[in-house]
Write a structure and sequence with these properties.
Length: 920
Amino acid sequence: MTGKHRFLVAAALASNCATTPSWAQARTETVNRVRTYSIAPGSMRAALDAWSRQAGTPVLYRSDEVDALRSRGVRGKLDAMAALRAVVGGSGLVLHRDRSGAIAVTRMPVADRTAAVAPVAEPTAAPAQEDDSIGDIVVTARRTAERGQRVPVAITAFSQDAIREKGINNGTDLQNFTPSLSVVGDVARNQETYTIRGMGGTGGPGAGSGPGVVGYFAEVPTSVSGPGNFYDLASLQVLKGPQGTLFGRNTTGGAVLLEPQRPRMNRVEGYVDGTIGNLERKSVQGALNVPIVDDMLAIRVAGQLDQREGYVRDVVTGRDYLNRNNFSLRLGIQFDPSATISNYTAVSYQEVDENGGGSILLAVNPARPYAALLQPYLAAQQARGVRRTALSVPTFEKAKNFLVLNNTEWRVSDTFTLKNIFSYARTRSTSATDRDSTTLPIADLLGAYPGSWNNNLRTITEEVQARYDNGTLRVQAGGFFLDQKTPAPLTFATVNPLQAGGILGGGPLLIPQPLQAALGLTSPLVPALTLQPSAHVDGHSKAAYAQVQYKIVPTLTATAGFRWTWDEFGGDIQSYQDPASYQVFNRLAALGIINPAQAAQIVGLNAGLCVYDAYRAVAAGRVPTLKYPNCTAATFRGTSNGPTWQLGLDWQADPQTLLYAVSRRGYKSGASNPIVSLFLGEDHPLFAVKPEQVTDAEVGLKRDWTFGDVRARTNLAAFYTWYNDIQVIQRAAIAGSDILTNAQRARVMGLEFEGMLVPVKGVTLGATYSYNSAKYLQYDTIAIPAIPQALTAAQPSRDLAGTPFSFVPKHKYNLTASLDLPIPEQEGTLQLSGNWSYQTSQRVTPEAQPFDTIAGYGLLNVRLDWREVRGFPLDLAFYGTNILDRAYRVTANPSYNNSGFIGSIYGEPAQYGVQLRYRF
């Protein structure tokens, strides 16, 4: 066997297994088991796939090595290796197994074939190959299982072991190990927004827009933000650049794919993994795989529970913010009624009940109305530091998410496959936040009504795919449909300072110190409660897509894809002023501060007043009179459509080298601004928001290297993106509410690198790096007219051209190193590892203001892993994260220029603990 082929075999084996004695034993038992095989003669690829399903054992092969070959098939009772030898017999393919029992099939040079292929009847396995390669991960970026190094897409992929060892529990952790990925939240920590290469944003149900980066679970588009997602996975993949011509939803920035570990046939296995650490950390996860019917039915049950104290303490109430308290459950059912039909069903449930909050006041605008009141609170916060705060709201984050999906694949023939993917999801959440980060009632969200939710969505998706693949030509086409609505009203309760004139404004009502106690107040401001008893949103998206890959020659492939997407969105909303808030005027009258007639006038006008009806009445020159429950439901609707396309060329120069070039167009749905329809009507230019358009050009190189015993991997990607009609937030534009507008033009250019080096056995070095230069070429903010009925002054347009993008650090890198420590073989393996991740500063708003930039920061993590402790299927680890205890911001609320303050949440402090995993 040549050195090149020896490397390929080892790489393939490493991509599919963990080299531990327990796994080796399980796989050996599987391949030695005698069972009935029924594999028809035909294409070699189909025969190998059939053997893998019937044996319950993965087998890796290169498509270009098997596509042109035929198999004689096999029928009868025999062990797995004998059946596999029958499948490949006479084809020139040779089998390989490493120490773990993982199996690969390769085509050897002609001179080696006679000696390499064993006779069909031989019952023993092929000699084991030494596993000394750089591991590769099987990815599904093109909706078929492929080695990551063979896919002409910029991908960062992680196995479940890598997720565990790197301590990736959510998107904020994931960004530290992924080039060009940024994850930043709002004042609610678990509302993570993914941005890749400058493209991101989440939009809002009913108002249109949409995520620039879409998350997928088992090929179904869904949320992957917050806790409870990254456990018991086969892989986690981050795809960069516009997507949509192959599957799912359209995106401008990329996609995050979570592939769960699916049930395995004919094998009882599982694991239990527990963690304890400082801050009272208690976490446990586990999985159990149970075969029900040999070669036909298996189930897998997995779950995770994570609890930890908060790391920010309220100095007034003692409440700990930013704690962890969540659990997740998952059931997978694999049903293969025949050799050509695969049916996977998954049911997932997540529940979060956490304190949230922990926001820190950073700056106060002296020119805004509440500056004098806020300055003492800012001074007190600066004296406390970033691990203590004082809030007026007992903040929380609660969520319940349910997902059921079915993925059915029918291999109609050796070349034609049909797939149907259906999902039903319910996502419910409510949160209370304190946007001013003080004990003053200035900008507080109290959450939903009891028993209700701020967000309550029912989402159904349906996708049909057809794939033709004869080895030279691959065609995949399909249709996607999404239907989303609120099955129950969305409710909100918000607190702002009571105005002296109620709905007519007049400035905040300020109560002198001697009167505060008599009125039951703790500050000069009187809290005014605004209630939203009902809101509904809906959205519909449908698309048709197709992509063609054609091998011009065996090593050169051309790709072309196209998609068209149609979106509809809308909703309605009601809001009114809480009558109880205005009783303070009657109490003032009782104290003789105002006369009863004045109190009666203000209370009579404002108590229970329908907010939006009142604004309309004032605009029409009338006195508002409508009171709850007779409020009008303000409605808003919009539509959008647009294309996505891809053109690419990739060249497999040799088995270790892939070069590619690709250009793509991305589309992100247009949107609407409900607040504009309320005051200016749906015909006003501010109501509709244009769709985003992204066009990129990317070139890449994926290369594995061998220099004697030294092995290395270098993956490079360079890109340039033309970005038009960028959807941006214009803060506090109308009635204090943000609106969505379009910046005209921007560009993003960058470079990404991922590398690994194994200089000697037992030492592995890794590095990732990304450079992103993203700025607006033309960005004139929208001029806002004076809107007296919304208490909104005129705002002139501003030129923000040249401003860097928000949430895009120009430089990011991660350095990793691991060292195998010498211990006796019977004691297991001992590995010391560490990683340093760093990202430069990133803007959080294009508007200049204090703290408009999150400063650059670096995090150092270390870990000691003892695997196969004393020969038992037990792994013990000691870990430390952010061991230098750096303070760094992870969210932003840039309201300095409009509301007059800015706050932020800080990332997790130094943590350490011990982790124990038992496998069976």
